[in-house]
Amino acid sequence: MRTNFVCRIAAPFIASLALGFAPGAALPAAGQSPDSSEHSTPAKLVQIVREATSQYIDVNNATAAGYGPFLGCVSGSDHGAMGVHYVNPNLLNPTTVDPMHPQALIYEPTNGGMKLVGVEFIADAATWLSKNSGPPVLEGQVFLYVDSPNRFNIPAFFELHVWAWRDNPQGAFVDWNNQVTCKGQQ
Q1: Residue 95, in any domain of the structure
Q2: pTM over the 0.85 mark
Q3: Is 168 exposed, middle or buried (0-12, 13-18, 19+ CB in 10 A)?
Q4: Could you read off the pLDDT tens digit of each residue along the chain, which spans 186 residues?
Q5: Which of 18, 62, 101, 109 lies in disulfide reach of 67, CB 3.0 to 4.6 Å?
Q6: Residue 94, preceding bond cis, omega within 30 degrees?
Q7: Beta 141-142 vs 144-146: how paired, if at all?
């Protein structure tokens, strides 16, 4: 029987809860401010995500809301990084997508803290396609399909990154961000 996506994602999350999250995990300073150097008005989805996630600038608020670290800091093999994904297993496997409730918050580890840089919307492909005829779309942004097997060892899924709190020279909806690094990871 195929393992349910929620169980595969939730197991590490629950294990991290049992361990009290990563020992020595860095926490941000109070009052951390957004870091976006976009010169033009950001896309509507970026604005929506900023409004929906501003309370998670402090990673402690994210963990209190049910988000937990998943897979450590994700870094590109040739450029950029994604950062540390804090996933909320209660928001996984949607058959509709809501820009106000991303499945993952993305933090960049800094010396002594975690800085919110973006979000990732995630939908298990089988669950999504059982109720929908195509990939999810938010404010005109079509989610990418990630087939299985994949580097995360999870079933096929749809995903969309939104770099709402860190400018990305390649675009606000591209997976990798050259402005994000895992170097501050402890």
Answers
A1: yes
A2: no
A3: buried
A4: 333 333 444 433 333 322 233 333 332 333 333 343 344 556 899 999 999 999 999 999 999 999 999 888 998 877 789 999 999 999 988 888 999 999 999 999 998 899 999 999 999 999 999 999 999 999 999 999 999 998 888 899 999 999 999 999 999 999 999 999 998 765
A5: 62
A6: no
A7: unpaired
Q: Tell me how far apart the alpha carbons of residues 91 and 6 are, in angstroms, rounded to a whole number.
A: 9
Judge residue 2's burial from the number of C-beta atoms within 10 Å of its C-beta, 0-12 exposed, 13-18 middle, 19 or more buried: exposed
Q: How many domains in the chain?
A: 1
Q: Is residue 182 part of a domain?
A: no
Residue 174: both structure tokens together: 């591209």
Q: Are 66 and 90 in contact (CB under 8 A)?
A: yes
> Which amino acid appears at position 146 of this protein?
V
DSSP, collapsed to helix, strand or coil, labels residue 24 as coil
35 within a domain of the structure (yes/no)? no
Assigned domain for 180 exists: no
DSSP character at residue 166: B
**Comparing C-alpha atoms, which of 99, 110, 96 is closest to residue 164?**
99
